[in-house]
Design goal:
The complex is a heterodimer of chains A (about 300) and B (about 140). Chain A has about 300 residues and is α/β, with parallel strands linked by helices. Chain A has a single domain, classed as 3-Layer(aba) Sandwich (Aminopeptidase). Helix content of chain A is about 40%, strand content about 20%. An eight-stranded mixed β-sheet of chain A has the order 1-2-4-3-5-8-6-7, sandwiched between helices. In chain A, strand 1 and strand 2 form a beta hairpin. Chain B is α/β, with parallel strands linked by helices. Chain B has six helices and six strands; from the N terminus they run H-H-E-E-H-E-H-H-E-E-E-H. Chain B has a six-stranded mixed β-sheet with strand order 1-6-5-2-4-3. In chain B, helix 1 packs antiparallel against helix 2 and helix 2 crosses helix 3. The longest helix of chain B has 18 residues. Classes of the chains: A alpha/beta (about 300), B alpha/beta (about 140). Chains A and B meet through loops of A and helix 1 and helix 2 of B.
Chain lengths: ~300, ~140
């Protein structure tokens, strides 16, 4: 199975070898590790995750590209060291290694990890927004009353531990799929009602527009596309807010339909519907989002100047 | 916006709640989402009195009525509404009162209707930013 996840896992293990002191293993699922990397010593934190859905390999690869850039720049980039003295960066490039190995959206138990949090009773587009009918169908939330899956629990524990003593946290979860354009989604996913931290999200959106003029992202609430029950980031956002902290979780949803439009034959394969297949398109995707990561790192490090 | 409203109507129909309190909460969720879909801001003045009761609706437009439902979990008594509002509520998939108001109140759900004699009211004003819903409980009404 490890060989099936060879691309992302091999790249992650090379980075572990390059920066062993920054790496740790959150959990093992079917003998496959969930790696996390920590850099920096500041209080605000930027958390980057990828590979929550095993089919969305490009999400993991984009996170690994950012991680690789960080690791190589640590050797010479004093500006990066200064930024990391002001904030921390935590990267979990592959949350669902079993899903990635089996080239399936869900984890090994057939559970969609992004719908696996304790669900709010209201909201959720039928089927797509989470279902409890069967793990054989997509978007399975897990059995009612069952504990969270190992991968989801590991991610929740990590985010809560990293944000506990942090006055401000940003998170970026990398996915691909919905639509022709790249979107940056913010909570809530379960309802279209504005989140309590709407002014902070608006400020971040304005900052993005000003710092990266002509950027490619549509900045919108997740639920404007469809509503999701049991969204992990809704859950984490609410818990952090209840604890008196600020966590602004964003989801990078890369519009994979654009890749299928350019290369319709790739739509015939499950991986092709969610990932760029042509090498030049993959390289373009990997470099396209690096300015966003850089922006978020700087926004987290200087949060008190704009929040 | 029409696509988003259609999506909301789909979400609303997926909420198969039987309990009256859950239906009232679903109605509030659907109304709040309908406003959010259209980018309408909602401000609520006052807090709802404890316990289930009948609220009178003071609203001049359908969107204002939706704002009132979004402010407090209530089941709307559709029989007291203009006919075209009833059709719009049905299109939106909004749960409405299907039992006698007294039964719903006994089960713990508040009821909203265009009843001039209701002791509590939800009065909706339209501002330039959106809607302002004032919850007028008996004590507040006496002071006024």
């Amino acid at each position: 199975m490890k060989q099936l996840a060879a691309g992302p896992l091999a790249a992650i293990e090379r980075l572990v070898a390059a920066q062993p002191e920054a790496a740790s293993v959150l959990a093992h699922v079917d003998d496959l590790p969930i790696h996390a990397f920590r850099f920096g010593s500041g209080k605000p934190v930027l958390i980057v995750t990828g590979g929550v859905h095993g089919l969305e390999r490009i999400g993991s690869e984009v996170a690994i590209a950012f991680l690789g850039s960080l690791v190589t720049r640590l050797a010479w980039d004093q500006v990066l060291h200064d930024a990391l003295a002001r904030c921390r960066v935590v990267v979990v490039p592959l949350v669902n290694p079993v899903g990635m190995a089996r080239a399936q959206r869900a984890n090994g138990n057939g559970v969609d990890l992004m719908r696996n949090a304790p669900a709010h009773p209201l909201g959720g587009t039928p089927l797509l927004g989470g279902q409890r009918i069967s793990p054989r169908l997509p978007w399975f939330m897990g059995a009612a009353g069952a504990p969270m899956e190992t991968e989801a629990r590991a991610l929740v524990d990590l985010v809560e531990a990293e944000t506990a003593a942090s006055p401000f946290a940003l998170a970026l979860d990398c996915h691909s799929g919905f639509g022709f354009i790249d979107r940056l989604w913010y909570p809530y996913a379960r309802t279209r009602e504005p989140l309590p931290d709407r002014p902070a999200i608006d400020a971040l959106g304005r900052l993005l527009d000003n710092a990266l003029p002509n950027h490619v992202y549509r900045f919108e609430q997740t639920a404007q596309a469809y509503t999701i029950r049991g969204d992990l980031w809704d859950y984490l956002y609410d818990r952090r807010r209840d604890a008196g902290g600020v966590l602004l979780p964003l989801t990078l949803e890369m519009g994979s339909w654009a890749w299928v439009r350019k290369n319709p034959l790739q739509g015939l394969s499950s991986l092709g519907r969610f990932n760029p297949i042509k090498p030049h398109r993959q390289r373009r995707t990997l470099r396209r989002h690096l300015p966003l990561f850089e922006f978020l790192l700087h926004a987290a490090a200087s949060y008190d100047a704009w929040l | 916006m029409m696509l988003r409203l259609a999506g909301l109507a789909l979400d609303a129909r997926a909420m198969t709640c039987r309990d009256v309190v859950e239906r009232a909460q679903s109605a509030r969720w659907i109304a709040a989402n309908a406003l959010a879909t259209r980018g309408i801001h909602l401000a609520v003045e006052g807090t709802a009195p404890r316990g289930a009761r009948v609220f009178g609706l003071r609203a001049t437009t359908f969107a204002a009525a939706i704002a009132a439902i979004a402010a407090v979990p209530v089941l709307i008594d559709a029989a007291t509404l203009p006919r075209h509002w009833r059709y719009l509520l049905r299109a939106l998939g909004m749960p409405v009162l299907t039992e006698p108001p007294a039964a719903a109140i006994a089960a713990g759900a508040s009821v909203l209707g265009c009843d001039a004699d209701a002791p509590c009211e939800l009065a909706v004003d339209e501002g330039w930013q959106g809607y302002r819903v004032r919850i007028a409980a008996p004590q507040r009404m006496l002071v006024a």
